[in-house]
Design brief:
Elements lengths: L1 E7 L4 H10 L6 E7 L6 E5 L2 E5 L2 E10 L4 H12 L10 E7 L17
Antiparallel strand pairs: 1-5, 1-6, 2-5, 3-4
Helix pairs in contact: 1-2
């Protein structure tokens, strides 16, 4: 079992959800997050004053999958989350982490069956 965490552009969320459902990954958790990497933020003007926005809005997906779904899940996120053919700085990151256990609260099932 693996936990896949992906940080993507908010504008790509619907496309990523559609791509995931096409590969039969339908369970995910979505969080609004803020951060920056190579983009380093940007400047904006508000009421005549310029200010720097250091933290950019992103969306974080958390998806627990069985091992046989890892590649399909990662490829779906890459395909739908990338800007254009080559992608752009700020498209996001995907982290694949080992998942020690999963427990379904309702039934008490554990491991891959609980996912």
């Amino acid at each position: 079992m693996k936990m896949i965490e992906a940080i993507i552009q908010p504008s790509k969320l619907e496309a990523v959800k559609e791509a995931l459902s096409e590969v039969e990954v339908v369970r995910l958790t979505i969080s609004d997050v803020q951060g920056f990497g190579r983009q380093k933020g940007h400047t904006e003007v508000y009421r005549g004053h310029e200010y720097t926005v250091n933290l950019l809005r992103k969306v974080k997906l958390q998806i627990a999958v069985n091992d046989e779904f890892v590649d399909a899940t990662v490829n779906a996120i890459i395909k739908a989350g990338r800007s254009g053919e080559e992608g752009k700085v700020g498209d996001g990151k995907i982290f694949v982490l080992p998942l020690e256990d999963c427990i379904r609260i309702r039934t008490g099932e554990r491991g891959p069956e609980a996912i």
